Amino acid sequence: MTMQPASTEITSRTAAIIQELKGLEGPLLPILHGIQEEFGHVPKDALPVIAEALNISRAEVHGVVSFYHDYRSHPAGRHVLKLCQAESCQSMGSDAIAAKLKQLLGIGFHETARDGSVTLEPVYCLGLCACSPAAMLDGQVIGRLDDEKLDEIVAEVRS
Amino acid sequence: MIPRIYIPGDSGALALGAEKVAKAIASELAERGIEAKIVRNGSRGAYFLEPMVEVATANGRVAYGPVKPSDVKSLFDSGFLTGGHHKRWLGVPDKIPFLAKQTRLTFARCGVTDPLSLESYKKYGGLNGLTNALGLTPAAIVAEVTESGLRGRGGAGFPTGIKWKTVLDTSGDRKYIVCNADEGDSGTFADRMIMEGDPFVLIEGMTIAGIATGATKGFVYVRSEYPHAVAVMNKAVEIARKAGVLGASVLGSAHAFDMEIRVGAGAYVCGEETALLDSLEGKRGMVRAKPPLPAHKGLFGKPTVINNVISLASVPIIMDKGAAFYKDFGMGRSRGTIPIQIAGNVKYAGLFEAAFGMTLGEIVDEIGGGTATGRPVKAVQVGGPLGAYFPRALFDTPFDYEAFAAKDGLIGHAGIVVFDDTADMLKQARFAMEFCAIESCGKCTPCRIGSTRGVETIDRIAAGIEPEKNLALVTDLCNTMKFGSLCALGGFTPYPVMSSITHFPDDFKPAPVRVAAE
Q1: Does B188 contact A130 at a Cβ distance shorter than 8 Å?
Q2: In a domain, A141, yes or no
């Protein structure tokens, strides 16, 4: 697992991101996206810095961070695999795909492999419904998942 | 003439290997010392043929698909750069039956042009609508859009012109155009396709909306699950700004309009317009009570037009060809065309833009070609996770807002997900409740708590515990959710649940009986 940066470092890097985006109308989501991109998650120590800069309470910042599925409180694995579990993919057997993938990776949804290689997440629609079942590996889209493609995915995340 | 090769950069095509095909073609070109230009176009929407590669020949475009990287060498050997025959040869793309049967108005350029070439956009009629709009008064633009009969394509079907008129008539020191690109419904991908394949049409539509209502700032709220669309939109906005389409003087006029692309953070409920506004403001995506309408007090409390991507992207053609042209398509109070997205377990999956009025059966059986698995169609869900499941018995329903409402269904964002006879409708009903529980913003009790109780009660039915009593309970719960929730998430979750119970009662019978029946 990657070491978490020291809190003073988090503070200064967070402040730089805020400085860059503060001028936007409604800057909180862009700031949080920027922080997650920087650290791979939204560190707890970043929240008071944001609250101070935007003149809102810490509770409000926490409320926003915890509302949205995208923001992580802990770093993800080296790879992030999002597997679509919505209706279109269900109609093409995404349940069985999920079961097989969980078995191959040895983890369930919202879990990270013990070696830190991969985090598995469900996602509700990637807009790839004309090539279900679909997944997204580190931002790369994959359609018409089958056993062969699952093996390729597993090989890639383990390499 | 340097040959031009079109290889879609659309994420649906990428998901089917378009990037590998593009690389293989590029390296083959280099190896053979052939000079050619590779254009990364959008998709035409015939996903069963993707990756579909096209070449521009002296006799027009010729398509090949679905192309695998292993086909590339033989494509060159067959002389595909001049339209030579090959096992993947499809001929003139416009004559491929799936495409030839469509009426492409909103998607006229999608898959045809280079998405990021403003020149190409203009060559195919782009900016004509905006140019016309600049010669009209705001009231005249609003009147034209109203006259076209365009209704909100996001699902609610509210007349776009009336929404615009409210904003025009409301005074404010600052007004906004917000584009709802939080396309979270399973089975829908029209917004994604247009943003990736023809982003300027959305920019043009939003700019016209700005001029018509006096708004000078626009936001596109794109879901984070669409990184490719976000990237294309950001580049397109930059190009439009440099070309003077956006900025202090739109196309040299006295009107100012600029816009920003914002990214969501994985909350389905933010597709609901008021939750989206809260999210843009940097808050939790909680649904607001109406009134006040967003048209009166929307983003940051200012008068705001909030429209779906397809509504806004349909405006340029209306302002180009006129309201009468657009209105001429369709049926009843559903005017113009609708991009129907045929998805799930279906043979010919893709986007099919057509005038309103085709029957569900025509769309699923004739256009979609039945299921991909070859088994009989059991149910189709129309309109996303909040849409009803229709059995074959309702396949004569015409694609029209009112006709679907009359059958206790909805068109929504016009996505159709096909299921074969292995589908378990109790499981689908349970999922609808589960999804509502995961995605509820938590404001209304019937949605927040009712959805969880719904899952538990359906589980009891599945376990054979007092099934009749529990079915009555689910029905009662659906009634409470329908009438006691502020927005469509809690209010419409009963559609998939109740339609499953009503049309597929056998799937809700206790397990022993179900086994015996099989």
Answers
A1: no
A2: yes
For residue A159, what pLDDT is reported? 85
Query: Which of A60, A87, A127 is the closest to B189 by Cβ?
Result: A127
Chain B residues with CB under 8 Å of A137 CB are none
Q: Is residue A40 part of a domain?
A: yes
Asked if A158 is an interface residue toward chain B (Cβ–Cβ < 8 A), one would say: no
DSSP string, B439-492: H--S-SHHHHTHHHHHHHHHHHHHTTSSHHHHHHHHHHHHHHHHHH-SSHHHHH
Q: Write out chain A residues lying below 8 Å of B47, CB-based.
A: 130-131
Q: How many CA atoms lie within 13 A of B279 on its CB side?
A: 32
Residue A1 resides in a domain: no
Residue B212 to chain A, least CA–CA distance (Å): 23
Q: In this structure, what are the phi and psi dihedrals at residue B216, rounded to the nearest 5 degrees?
A: -115, -5
pLDDT in tens, B462-510: 999 999 999 999 999 999 999 999 999 999 999 999 999 999 999 999 7
Q: Do A29 and B262 touch (CB under 8 A)?
A: yes
> Which residues between 111 and 140 in chain A have a beta carbon less than 8 angstroms from any beta carbon of chain B?
123-132, 134, 136, 139-140
* Count of domains forming chain A: 2
Strand arrangement of the beta sheet that strand A79-84 belongs to? A111-112, A118-123, A79-84, A135-137, A140-142
| Closest CB to A29 among B15, B192, B279 | B279
Residues B69-105: pLDDT tens digits?
999 999 999 999 999 999 999 999 999 999 999 999 9
From the candidate CATH numbers 2.30.42.10, 3.40.50.300, 3.40.30.10, 3.30.530.20, the one assigned to the domain spanning B4-100: 3.40.30.10
List, for residues B320-364, the tens digit of each pLDDT value. Answer: 999 999 999 999 999 999 999 999 999 999 999 999 999 999 999
Mind listing the pLDDT tens digit for each residue in B210-222?
999 999 999 999 9
Asked whether residue A97 is assigned to any structural domain, the reply reads: yes
- In this predicted structure, the answer to whether residue B229 has a pLDDT above a threshold of 70 is yes
